[in-house]
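Write out the 3D structure for:
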Amino acid sequence: MDITFYHLTKFPIVRALPQLITKISELGERAFILCKDEKQMLELDQLLWTMPSNAFIPHDTIKCSDPKAQPLLLLTEIKENLNNAKIAINLTASQINENLNLKKYLYVFYGNEDEPEVVATLNLYESYRGKDHKVNFWKQDVQSKWIKQ
């Protein structure tokens, strides 16, 4: 499984995530987003519903009537891969559930390196390095360009 970390330093997650989701959608891949809490999940849901019609990405939250039908599913906990996603976007500092049959696992996080959640995610990065995964780490520079670490 490929694991990629995206450390946002210029823009908050809600500003950067639509671009990443659009790329996943253009590839025709199913995905889910593991949100920190219900507030973040609803915020992302609202953001995705207000995108221009030519950029709309079909999605819903775990509260919908048929999560299995969603190409993009927003949720706050993951016990099983309900929508048969191949890509997971994790906005938390929680470990991967390796039994979900995923192709790619993306950690997306925002903040300074001294913030507790960023420290926890950086520790996860260190724990995955050297294991049987392809692990990448990208960080925004001051001009918002992605630099491979």
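The chain has a mean pLDDT of 91.
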